[in-house]
Amino acid sequence: MRRLLAAALCAALITGLSSCGQEEGTSAEFYAMDTNMSVTAYDGNAQNAVSAVRDELYSLDLRLSRTRIDSAISRLNTGVGLPAEEADISQLITSAIEYSDATDGAFDITVAPLVSAWGFTTDHYQIPKQKELERLLPHVGSSHILFGGDGTITLDGGTKIDLGGIAKGYASDLCEGILSESGVTSAMVSLGGNIYVRGSKPDGSDWRVGVQDPQKPSGFAGVLSLTDAYAVTSGGYQRYFEENGKRYHHILDPVTGYPAESGLTSVTVVAPANGDEYGDGPGHGTMCDAFSTALFVMGEEKAVEFWRSGVYDFDLVMVTEDGRVLVTDGLADKFQQEDGSGYAYETVSGNPA
To answer: 252: which DSSP letter?
Structure first.
């Protein structure tokens, strides 16, 4: 029997590639939310902005982690409930339910017991017994999240939530607000691969964001040229183990309780930044984080159908198991395929062929 966890550095979803020439910014690198993070700002009150971003991310880690026994989420999961004063977390949970409903449950924060059953929370990996999954699956679904008239949230017995599939996206939304308030117009934030780029680089050029090659963790399937945008990737190569020659990754299908087998190896969701008028709640970063997971679970056909619906404003880069890179037409002039990547390139139109 052999088990393997993708190394933390290799699990980076997407990576900023280009430096900014001779322009020096204010930067910080740190570890929070179970991942390596970095932020660099180039103008405005950059030093204070970077410090504020770091403090905000540390604070979110303390409040949203379900493995910290004193966090708001842990207290909710143990039956204490979420009090009304945790209004921002309540708003985040509400957004998670919206995205779950929009994707027919492909994204679901109540998969927490399933994630634990597979050992992805503790890194003690195992294939759970079918009877164990059958016991847990009835507790999965947003209908088990109960909102009280006094603004509190409680959970049905046996239901627990995990915000890991949406928390870093939410954090990137808050980073945008901090940078805006600090007068920063050029910055890059990398939260374990959840990327937010503010404005353009100091020299006026686009930021270059590499989409990791799922088959070659040290390489890229292509590079995106972006300004004022979020880009978030989910992939089966990020965290996994192998047993008896079969790989089991961490992106679970809420319907079956097993790792999703959708024919996709990674999904990158790209959306425009929220803009300076944006408030403090969940926004496009949160949306990208949730949809990158949901569309990976849904698979190519349903993901494209969902994108074509136009209900939400985003574009896609999808890498398939059969060796294709699919890029929606909103990114066609922003994506450059890496030479020698070996993938067949396809543009996906907004209208069915």
So the answer is: B
Mean pLDDT of 73-78: 96
For residue range 106-152, what is the model confidence (pLDDT) as tens digits? Answer: 999 999 999 999 999 888 999 999 999 999 999 999 999 999 999 99
Q: Is the dihedral of CA 222, 270, 300, 170 positive or negative?
A: positive
Size (the chain), residues: 353
Amino acid at 317: V
**Cβ–Cβ under 8 Å, residues 259 and 119:** no
Closest CA to 202 of 30, 1, 25: 25
- Is residue 313 packed enough to be buried (19+ CB in 10 Å), middle (13-18) or exposed (0-12)? exposed
CA distance 257 to 84: 32
| Residue 151 Cα distances to 83, 91, 166, 233, angstroms | 7, 10, 21, 33
Distance from C-alpha of 187 to C-alpha of 201, rounded to nearest angstrom:
7
Residues of the chain above pLDDT 70, percent: 92
Distance in angstroms (rounded) separating the CA atoms of residues 12 and 219: 11
Do 320 and 299 form a contact (C-beta atoms < 8 A)? no
Output the pLDDT for position 216.
Answer: 86
Rounded to 5 degrees, what angle do the CA atoms 347, 220, 312 make? 45
pLDDT band at 275 (very low <50, low <70, confident <90, very high): confident
Per residue in 311-341, pLDDT (tens digit) is 999 999 999 999 999 999 999 999 999 887 7
Which of these, 281, 251, 245, 246, lies nearest to 265 by C-alpha position? 251
Residue type, 46: A
Q: What is the pLDDT of residue 22?
A: 42
Indicate the DSSP class of residue 260. Answer: P
Sequence-ordered list of residues with C-beta below 8 angstroms from that of 212, at least 6 positions apart, any chain: 12, 13, 14, 15, 193, 219, 220, 221, 233, 235, 237, 266
Task: Report d(CA 73, CA 63) in Å as an integer.
Answer: 7
Q: Which of 344, 298, 306, 338 is nearest to 324 (CA)?
A: 344
